[in-house]
Amino acid sequence: xxxxxxxxxxxxxxxxxxxxxxxxxxxxxxxxxxxxxxxxxxxxxxxxxxxxxxxxxxxxxxxxxxxxxxxxxxxxxxxxxxxxxxxxxxxxxxxxxxxxxxxxxxxxxxxxxxxxxxxxxxxxxxxxxxxxxxxxxxxxxxxxxxxxxxxxxxxxxxxxxxxxxxxxxxx
Length: 171
What we know:
The protein is α+β, with helices and mostly antiparallel strands. It has one domain: Gcn5-related N-acetyltransferase (GNAT) (Aminopeptidase, 3-Layer(aba) Sandwich). The protein is 34% helix and 33% strand. It has five helices and seven strands. The chain has helices at residues 13-28, 34-45, 50-55, 107-121, 136-144, and strands at 3-6, 61-67, 70-79, 91-98, 126-132, 148-157, 160-170. A seven-stranded mixed beta sheet has the order 1-2-3-4-5-7-6, sandwiched between helices. A hairpin with a 2-residue loop joins β6 and β7 (160-170). α1 runs antiparallel to α2. It is globular. The N and C termini lie far apart (33 Å).
């Protein structure tokens, strides 16, 4: 089965949101209380959620991986939004998700390479991202790609507050 990489459109919103919802729930169900997880999933990946709005935002660049027309991963790149002092023109990876059934097949590496190349093309000297401190798989992945922790912030799901690290890579 071949993997196709492309820019998603708003028509990809529903299947992309469904994949992101599954991925987020599978990764964080053990650390987020079920009622708060349900509310967050609806706010982020529901029919009127943040993901659908982001797909229509021209300030956010996307790359989607799909197999047989079904989304299996994606990455979002934008200007800096994290609460951290960054160089002018710094960019941020807003999300990098790969469906669990596709882990270990190089999809995340391909998506990350795309984001790094695009950030460089745009003239960014720094690339940032946020990652939940206890998501050890993601922490190892980002470390392998040259990122290191430079700060932290609170990530909220309902009344729960989670420690997210702010990570940076020089370009």
